[in-house]
UniProtKB/TrEMBL annotation:
All residue ranges annotated as the Helicase C-terminal domain in the record: 409-572
Compositionally biased region (Basic and acidic residues): 1-16, 33-50
Top-level taxon in the UniProt lineage: Eukaryota
Record GO biological process: siRNA processing
Organism annotation: Gossypium raimondii
Keyword Translocase: no
Residues of the Dicer dsRNA-binding fold domain: 593-683
CDD domains named among the record's database cross-references: DEXHc_dicer, SF2_C_dicer
Name of the protein in question: Uncharacterized protein
Keywords: ATP-binding, Endonuclease, Hydrolase, Magnesium, Metal-binding, Nuclease, Nucleotide-binding, RNA-binding
Amino acid sequence: MHSPKEEQGEPLKRSFSEANSDPPDWMVLDDNETAKEEDPSSSSKPKDFNPRGYQLQVYEVAKGRNIIAVLDTGVGKTMIAVMLIKDFVQAIESTESKKLIIFLAPTVHLVNQQFEYVKDHTSLEVEQYYGAKGVDEWTLDCWEKETKEHDVLVMTPQILLDALRKAFLSLEMVSLMIIDECHRATGNHPYAKIMKEFYHKSNNKPKIFGMTASPVVSKGVLSSNNCDGQMSELECVLDSLIYTIEDRTEMEACVPSAKESCRFFDPAQFSSLDLKAKVEASWLKTDASLSNLQSSLQTSYKGMDDKLKNLRKRLSNDHAKVLHCLDNLGLICAYEAVNICLENILDTTEESKAYRESVLQYKNFLEEVQCRIGESLPLGDKNFLNTGFDYLKAVDLGYISPKLHELLQLFQSFGETRQVLCLIFVERIITAKVIERFAKKVSCLSHFMVSYMTGSNTSVDSLAPKMQKETLESFRSGKVNLLFTTDVVEEGIHVPNCCYVIRFDLPKTVRSYVQSRGRARQNNSEFIMMLERGNVKQRNQLYDIIRSEYSMTNSAIKRDPDSDPCLLKDHTFEETNVFIVDATGASVTADSAVSLIHKYCGKLPGDKYYTPKPNFQFTSSEGLYKCKLTLPVNAAVQTIVGPLSRNSHLAKQLVCLEACKQLHQMGALDDHLTPSIEEPSENACISKGKDSGAGAGAGTTKRKELHGTTCIQALCGSWGEKSDDAVFFAYKFDFKCNIITVVYSGFVLLIESKLADDVGNTEMDLFLIGKMVKASVSSCGQVYLNAEQMVKAKRFQEFFFNGLFGKLFVGSKSSGAPREFLLRDKTSSLWSPSHMYLLLPLEDNSTDELRIHWPGITACTLAAEFLNKNSLLGTEQSDDDGSNPSLNSTGSPVTYCKETNIIRFANSSVDANSLRNTVVLAIHTGRIYCIIEAVSDKTAESSFAETVDTVSSEFATFYEYFYKKYNIVLKHPGQPLMLLKQSHNPHNLLVNFNDE
């Protein structure tokens, strides 16, 4: 295909409508040359290639029907895919509606690789998609934009599956779907789900082109019948026929084949039974201790149970890692494994005391194991593997295993060249990490750059995707010579200069064998498998795999080229348990419903102290299971009970499917079955700098969010209806500000239940505007309150906290209900058994002695009694003259006398000099305020507009303001006005918003 005409220097990429041109002008290029291609930035001209005979043969068959191309690694399967893409350009151009080509690859590495290849070899608009790009959160508009602007979409299968389920994409939009490493289309893999849930139900199916070097994946010996069965299954799922090249002469001549050999090592002679017994004993002791703690906290602290369960699992995993390294690598690597585990210790700074102590026990276990191994390994110098180190003696002493020693000798056989690229496949992540560290300390390997690469799973030893990509690029470019890796790079990764592939641990399947061997791409490359001398099990395992490869190849060659893939096996892909949204076609199956429920809960508001998640409870009867699903309290639906099912797994799926239906009916899931929960945007966060006050501040209405609540067992009580005495457990709250001159009063929490020691004695930081307060909680034993104190304490709490949040009066003119004092009648309705506690002020915050501030409590009680006796105070009733008789018994204002300096309130008179920090209740708002000072030059007769800084006002004075707005006639208008500190809306003080 000729290149498009250049305009102003560089040619532009072409869309489908522009790509139909003259027949290709071929030049030779194969898959093994992709790493030698020009820098893409130098030119956007697509690279042409001259297909070999076997590639043209597969291509011609693929044009006519769906096929699974079974070809060895490195023979150019991707080139055939690109030929098909170019062929489809002409067909797509003739249609009125745009059709897409989707290229699926199972890993992000392969997506990156295939994206670059298609982009370099076509003039089409190509883009790649995977989870790390934030695709999971895209909307319909995002996908419509992508499909409009691009012709070929290269993505991981999970991305396509999610987009199909949400009805953002449909297979009717797709003309060709290329499936790389398609042998994965079994079981619950996204490949299989795409085909079963969507392809086989589609009326207008895209063409399928599958690519693999190993169409069977199971372990063990594979007979011809085994291979036929697995291949038939794969063909049925992919609606394609397996096709391979019978005459392999051209392939073998064109594509370099790695020389296979075995490297033998002696069995380990060093006995570490005593050391292993000590490690085992230490592990059992620590696990038993954590188990006891877990049992003691399970009923009261369910969240803690999960943490301890995970910690015990991690303890067990680390124990297994150390033993594995002892058995297979030797003392030095086992010691290094403990170091790695210690480096991954959890940060428990903000955790509870009980959990911190649990992690400390876990850490003590690792340090004890480290000490035990160190006793058997008296090598303090980190450079002990320098020149002259006796490796044979180290093997005898158990410092290194014979297997590791053989690997070192293999590396030494590479010589002093820095041009070596060697992949070493290991089974476990910990093996890759410890040998990588060990190799870096070996002086005779100092001329090699060493690294490791693992997958990005949930393991603590996993590698981040970005680091994986950087490591792989370093290996491709030759910056890294020895790369220790797990199976993450077995499939499809193209490193043309890789000259050695070593299987440090034998492959478990024929697929693993074929794929790892295929990474050796350079001419005269070697594929080396390490075997223990005399180990019959290992030998048989290897022979079984080699025989299975022959069975697989022969079965692929003998496939009937004219059979119908979906008639080969009696298959049905109907999904009975599925919910489909009529408006869009979005769907959720019983299988996908569980993850959707978890995603919905993950979108609900939460913080570092609370993670919204579903709770599942199972019951069984006569061999059938039923699941009860409880969603967080801020979910649209709370509890759903599923139908009876044959097993607990299906019961869980079906209750989640029913929950999805109900959440959609409630509008919590939109018509694309995505959570319709409004999340605060980044712009909603408090901005830094001087303008932060102009935005939505913490505690303001604009920052309001829906947060979940749950019943706190420790705050429950049964004394609400009682009028006699009571005994409480007391917990004192003290506050210390980082500004010395700022002093806060303490208070005491009285509850029926005793808190755990780590909860009842703790500290935390509270972040206020411009300052920080250290809050501490301490247990003060039990406190007895007599009947009179109980009455006062309850009335204080009713009055003070309702007044603090403006809830002392109920009803209003706008609501049609008369305004009344909340505490006028019985107040039993204000006390809930789930919130039965007293929060009382303390007299002195500087002493350790607990002294409740009874004078302050009594004052609140008297204020409440005054309001009850003066029932019309603060109501909207008035006499005929419009005045409120409770506020003006004489009907005329009283003159204020400055000489007396007395300020008169409705229920008392106070010296103006003693007002500071006095708590007052404003009748018109029903709120409690704190007095800062009396403003001597302002009275109710002062100008309203000047004082409140308004441009214009309908009120001339404060006297007039209260009269017209609240129907209140002030009795002492000549008194100074009070400067008050208002109470604030509750907001989160646990987060330092100043740093946002």
